[in-house]
C-alpha cells in the first residue's frame, strides 16, 4: 500500500448541534477543548479546521494550543463565523455598510489568528450571503459586493491562502457562490494568487455537479486548495458519514485527485447529529482507507483506455473490481 | 366577494429561529405572550396553533389565555414538541421503550391541554421519527411502532381530533409519514374516526406531489382535517411566504378545497427567518385574499368543461384571467 | 454460496431507442427475434418480459416461441403498450371514452396472450395516464377512472396476476400511480387478490422513497409481485446499469427481499442507449452476483442488533465489510 | 404601453414529437413548410429558429424562404442537429476523431446556411456531449475537446455570432455546458467576441440557478446573445408553456432584461407534446404580453429601494401589485 494521506476534520464534527426544531440541541454542549480531545481520540486525524470566534469558550488561546498539542493535532485552517446572528442577511454582501465593515474586520482578525496558529488557509464560507425570494436583491450589485469584499480581504494578506467553500444553498435559499464554475469566475476576476477553492464533495453532489469533474476544473485553474468529504442523498447537505451512500463517486473523486498528484488533506466535514462523533470519524476513515487501497489496485492503464473511448461498461468493471475487493485487504474492516 | 375564510397561523411564525449555523438565533428571543401579541397585530388572524411545552415560558396558562383573548385569538390546535432533544432518535418510534413511553405521556398531556383550551385538534408532527442512513432501521418494525403508538394515543381520546402532518424529510433524512398516500394507508389501518391529516402545502410540493391532488385524495377519504400554507423552491421546506413563488398551484389548491366545500382555516406555516413576522403574515394574507377573490371570478363551468377534456391550454387561460386580475379588485394591494 | 436467483430482463433492454432529440434512433433497429437472441447471449437470463403489440414484427407467434426456446428463455410477463400514439393523453384514464374502451380491449388481448405464453403476470405501466399542467384535470375523476378501469380488467381474469409498475413521472409530468403507497391505496380499494405491484428500484429511488422500505411495505400488504432493477442519479429515470451508482441501497433492497423470503425474479429494466446491450446485462449480473454473495456473508444477527437500536454506524460497518469484499469471492470479476 | 418586444419561436415548437415510449410519435408528422405555416398562424411571431439538416424535408431552400416570406417570418438562427444518431456519443467531444471531424463539417455547413438566410446567430446545443456514468470519461480531456472544437468553428466565421445553449442534462445524464458560469468560463477561455450564450429560462430553472441572476451575469460579461422561454417543475426540462407555473420568476427574468436595456427576441422553446401547437404559442404570448404590461406598471423606484435593503416583503408586494393586475389591462385575456 502506498503511504496513507493526511486525514483531517472540521472541529465542529465533534460538537453537538442545534437546528430549527431541536433548538435545545442534539445533546449536551461540548466545549472546544473537549472537541479537540475527541478529535484526538479518533486516532487517525492529524489536522483540524477551527471555527472562530471560539463559541462558548472563555479560556485562553494557549489552552487551545496545548489541547491541540497533546492530541497530536495541528490547526490547518480557521473558519470565521460570518453566518451567525449579526450576519443573517449577509456578511460581505450585507445591505448595511456597517455590517459589511464588521464582517471584514472579523475576517481580518481571523486571518491574524490563522497566521499565529500556522494555518495553511482561512476558509470563507459565506452561507448567509445570497437571497431567499425572487426580486429580493439586485444580482449585479450583490455579486460585485462579494468580489469587492474578497479583493479587499485577500489582497491585504498575501502571506496566507484563502479558500471559498461554495455551496448551492442553506442557510440562504440561494448562496452567491453556489458551484465550482461561478466561484472560479469570481476568483479569476479578482485575480489574486492566494485565493482558491475548498471543494466540499457533498456540496458538489447535491449542486448537480459531478464532484470529480468539479475537482478537475479547479485543478486545471490551479485553484483547488482544499477539499472536504461527507455524503448525502443528492437533495440537501446532509453531511452524512463518507461512504454511506456514494461509494463510486467518492472513489472517482479521490481518483481524480491522485491522477493530478494533488496532495492535500483528506478532510471530514460531517455532522453526526445522532451518532457518536468519534465513531463517525472512525467509520469514515475506515472507508477512506479502503478507497486509498482501491486506488492502489485499480488498473490505471486499462481505465485510461476505457475512458479514451468513453466505454462506461469497461470502466465500471474495472472500478468495481477494485472497490468491491478493497476491504478484503484492510485489517480494521 | 363571498365571505372571507378564517385565517390562522402557527404561533412559531412570530418567534425567532435558530438553525445549525446561526446557533445564537436570527434575532432576540421572543416570549410566548409577545408572540401572541404579534399574531394579534396582524389584524386578520382569528386562530393560532400553539406549541407545547411552552418553551422558555414560565408564566401561567391563564396568562396565555388572557393574551389570546385580548388579541381576539383562539387556540385551534396544540402541537406537542416531540422533536426536541429527548426525541432526536424518534418519539413514538424511538428504539428505546422508555423514551417511547415518555413521548406518549407527553402526547397525552398535550391532548388534555388541547381539550382545556377548546382546540379543534392535536397536531402530530413526527419529524424525528424516521431514519438517516441505509440499513439503519428495520422498516417493518418502525412502521408498526408508529401505528401502535398512534392507535394507543388516538383511541384514548375519542372526544378530540388528531392530525398527522406528513413531511418527506427534515430534520430526519427520511420521515415515516412522508406523503399523503402513506399517511392515509396508516390511518386506514388504524381505523379510528378521529385521526386525519394536516396537509402542509409546501411539504406536498417538495415531496413531488401535486398539492391539489393530495388534498382531493385526503378529502375523498374523509381525512382532510386541516391545512397549512407557505411556499418553497420544490427542493426543501423553505417555509417562505405564501404566494412568493407558486401562485398557480396555490390557487389550484384552494380551488380544490372550495370545490369540495371544505371549510377549514387557511393557516400559515411560515418561517420568516430574516423578515418582520407581522409583515410576513400581512403579505401572505394579502395574497390569500387575492386568491379568494380569484376563486369568486373564476368561470367554474368553463373550467369543468376544459378539465373534462384535459385541455391544459383552455384551463390555463381561464385561471390566468382570474388570477392576473385578482389584485385589481383588492383595496389593500 | 446459496443458490443464485433467477435473472430476467425486459426485452426492450436489447432493442435500440429513440428519444425526442435522436428521433432517428440510437442505432439500427433491432427486430424482436434478434432482441431475444441477444437476451439469450447474455448467458445468465432465464426469463424475459415482452412488450405487446410486437412493434415492427410481422412474423408469427410460433416464431417468437421458437426464439425463446432456442435461447432457453421463458416469457414471464407481457407489457401491453398503452403509452404509444393512441394513448398519449391516457389509456384507462383517457378523457375520450372511445379511447378508454380501446385501451381496455388491448389489455384484454394482451392478457390472453400472456395466458397463452404461460406468463406469471401482465404488467400495467400507465405512463401516459396523468397530467402535465396545473388545473388540467379533475383529480377526483381521473383517479376513479383509473380504479374503475383496473377493476374491470383485473376482475375479468382471475386466473392470472396483474402488476402496476408505479413511477413518479415521464412521459407525463405526473403519473397517476407515482409511489408505492398511492398504488397500494388503489389496490386495496379495488380489493382483488390478483392485482399487485412491480417495484422498479429506480422509480422508487428518484421518487424520494427508500426502495427497501417501499419493498417492505408492499410485502407487508402481500402485494409485491415483481421487481425491476436499474440505477439513476435520483433525479430522473435514467435506467442505468444496476450497481453503477447506488451500491448500498441496491444491496439493502435485496437484503429486504431475502429477509422476507421473497423469491421472485431479479429482473433488469435498463436502457443502454449508448452501450452494447449484451455487455450491459452482463455487467449488471456480475454486480448482482456480488450482491448475492454479500448477502451470504453479511452478519445478520449483528445487523439485527444494530437496527434494533437504530445504530447507523454499526450497520454501515457490517454492510461495508460484506459489500466491499464481495468481488474477492467472485470468479468472473 | 411601451412597444411590444419581437416574439419568436423554435420551429420545432410546431412539429410533432417522439420519445422513448411513444416511438410512433405524438401525432402525424408535420413537414417543415407546414411547421412554418403554423408559426405564421400564431399571428404574433416575427422570427423562427430553424433546425438543420431539414429532417424529412426534400424540397428546395427557396421553398423554405418562400414559406417564411408568406408568413411574415425571418430566420433568426440555425440550430445544427449535432445530437442525432451519428452523434449520440458526442459531437465535438466524440471519442472518435472521425465523428468529431464530421460534426465540425456539419457545423461549418450550417453556418454557411445561416449566413445565406441572414440569421443573427448559429445556435450550438451539445446535448449529446457529456457523460452518463461515473468514471466514463476523462473530464480534463472532454472539456478541452469542447473548447478546441468551438475555437476552431467560431474563429473561422468572424462575420456571424454563435451561441451556446447550456443545459444541465438530457439526453446525456450530464452535459459539458450545464450552467451559465461554466459556459462563461469556457467562452472567456476561448476569447472570441462572436461566441455568447443563449439562456434558456427552463434550463436555468431546473439547473438550480435563479434565471434572472444567470441573465445578469451573462449580461455583465457581454455574452447574453439570445434567450428562450418555457416552464417546468424544476426537476426536468419539461418545456411547458411559459407562465404555466413560474409567473414570478419569469417576470423577474424579463425585468432583468429590461433593466439592462437588453433588446433581443422573446423566444419560445416549448414542446406542446399533447397540445395544439398554435394555441400553445398563443397562450404563451398572451402571458408574455401581460408580463410586458406589468413591467410598464411596476414601480421601479420603489423596487430599487426595496432591493437596496434586501427587503423581500416590500418587493413581493410591489411585484404582485403589478403582476396580479396585469391582465386587467389586456384586451385579449
Automatic annotation (TrEMBL), chains A, B, C, D:
Keywords: Carbohydrate metabolism, Cytoplasm, Isomerase, Manganese, Metal-binding
Coiled coil: none
UniProt-listed SUPFAM superfamilies: Xylose isomerase-like
One Gene Ontology MF term: xylose isomerase activity
Ranges of residues in domain Xylose isomerase-like TIM barrel: 57-290
Biological process according to GO: carbohydrate metabolic process
InterPro entries: L-rhamnose_isomerase, Xyl_isomerase-like_sf, Xyl_isomerase-like_TIM-brl, Xylose_isomerase
Protein name per the record: Xylose isomerase
